[in-house]
Amino acid sequence: MLIVQKFGGSSVANAECVFNVAEIVTEKYKEGNKIIVVVSAQGDTTDDLIEKAREINPHASRREMDMLLSAGEQISIALLAMAIEKMGFPVVSLLGWQAGFNTNSTYSSARIKRIQTERIKAELDKNNIVVVAGFQGVNRFGDITTLGRGGSDTSAVALAAVMNAEICQIYTDVDGVYTADPRKIKNAAKLDEITYDEMLELATLGAQVLNNRSVEMAKKYNVEIEVLSSKSRVPGTKVKEAAKMEKMLIKSAAKDTNVARVMIVGIPDVPGVAFQIFSRIAKAHINVDIILQSVGRDKTKDITFTVAADKGNAAVAALKEYIDMVGAKEISFDTDVAKISIVGAGMETHEGVASRMFEVLGDAGINIQMISTSEIKVSVLIEAKDADRAVSVVHAAFFDDSLAL
Amino acid sequence: MLIVQKFGGSSVANAECVFNVAEIVTEKYKEGNKIIVVVSAQGDTTDDLIEKAREINPHASRREMDMLLSAGEQISIALLAMAIEKMGFPVVSLLGWQAGFNTNSTYSSARIKRIQTERIKAELDKNNIVVVAGFQGVNRFGDITTLGRGGSDTSAVALAAVMNAEICQIYTDVDGVYTADPRKIKNAAKLDEITYDEMLELATLGAQVLNNRSVEMAKKYNVEIEVLSSKSRVPGTKVKEAAKMEKMLIKSAAKDTNVARVMIVGIPDVPGVAFQIFSRIAKAHINVDIILQSVGRDKTKDITFTVAADKGNAAVAALKEYIDMVGAKEISFDTDVAKISIVGAGMETHEGVASRMFEVLGDAGINIQMISTSEIKVSVLIEAKDADRAVSVVHAAFFDDSLAL
User: What's the predicted TM-score (pTM) here?
Assistant: First the structure.
């Protein structure tokens, strides 16, 4: 059985951690599996390197930044290989370019175009444990590129896809995906399984366990992922196609406070207004989440939408000229809001889900400002101060008496 | 004019140093030269990485050590490129494999087999300053290798050779080659020029300014080297063919305390004894420096030779069995000795040189234990405690009244 395992920076932060990882890896190897290990840079290495660069040139080219940062994984793969050697197992470390990661030339956030697997296959055939540097590749000019945030997850899933691995185990500092943030909600429960789409929804809700690109890639190539902890040796949460899973309902309740609400009050109620507004927002490279448009009244209407908290200013600036031109009463934004969501496959067939969520929030005296629903998600916008309480009551409603809707 | 410049680890130890190097580089570039810069790892990076490895596995494979250590230059070339970018000059950094350094597979002390110059030439044609990682290359399996001690000097000289550079400037923490160690001898004078052979002799004497392999390579390919300091902006010492130089006599007086003297007393005076002894020493991979054999007496003789201080034990061990077999009175070694040498081209035609050296040592009451001479060198072995005084009187004899032999 071929297994791809991925370990993040905190999992290899020091010698002790590195040996812990080496033990997890060699345990699976001893069971007769072929193992590819994808590793990120050690703990603070990347931050240290960024600081070194900032001291010299805060506007360094991305090419040179990638050259610099990719040294981080080079160090960690060598150290992990040394630990595995010490334990007496055959091992070889490979950099991104050695492992065949061909990317485009978008330095700092390159996309993997192809993985040439000859070298990895040859090493696996020699019964070597193969330790691969995550996050990095090489472009067609022979220059080093990096994949950007969460790039090592993407490296691991991509390898699992092209190598037809049985499973891609992503080791993190949490031991799985929970029905709510376990640090906040006492009786949050770990999920055994979750679908790709649900995982993607969770990620956009601020519950960032896996990088989105890697989940999208896993979905596209049908790679089964397991999210688990490198500290505890317990099964984690499997991310896979719904078809493989028993049908479950609500999977998780989550909050996202990284939200700004932009309000345009009293804009003329004529066709094309929404297009004019959101095309300008798109041109400013701002992603819009929830959109709410009031019913027209007195020939004007109100349009409200949410963006990431740090994009509130930019969104207002992008619209200023247009708003002045067409004449609107007011444009403003505030970040004193939070988005509370519940996620679960098959939600669309259970109308009771959304209404039950609204009910418990109302019972708790929490005012709902905006509502957005998708096939597998219900999100509401509320005041930020109510966020934790909202997650708590919603979680209680759906998980404490479980699926008894 | 194409110039290769090489900067060691202390020259790029921190942001300030990196900018100092960037200034030296861009000054030459502004004069209209094409520039290739070879850089070592920053200050203590290599030691830090070695310590990380030692913590995990003191017996790590050399392949993984090379993988680990080569990250050091990767960091320094990126940082130097960023500094040059900041100053507004076009620049590109290249790793050993990107710069075409093909080596054999002797990890940790690989030999350069070939440099494929296409990439470097293309970058120079684009008017880029090319910053190359010293010390590293790639073998035919696509694995990273390092060149061992002083490897960056070798990288620089090799590049200067294949690129037909006008000169290879090696920047160090001294501003040239001196007639004696300037930290010890007050009136030691900096040389304008020195030949390759003299430089090699100096290196074996412990005055390690340049790595031997790089000097040998420079001699073979007739690459003119300039040794100079990255701190002061003064001309250094040029290392080149004697033909190019005005004939000078004594170039330098140096001492080497890394010496063990091995003595075999009372060994049978029969043919083949020397062969038996030194073939065993060679088999143990021990380099022998001076050899002294006494005239036979009472059918026995004494053989004394010197090796590096830390090889004394091994040399005695290698000979134990043979000595016991043929019967010798005693074998022992001591490290309480020092080698004092004077070096200079054309010495063989001036018999007065050696005798003057012996004379001043005798006048100073310093006993000479062994003598070795070559065409360009006279070395004597003395007691370690006399070493500094010996260099002083010898230097005074040859340099204070200059060439008035």
Answer: 0.72
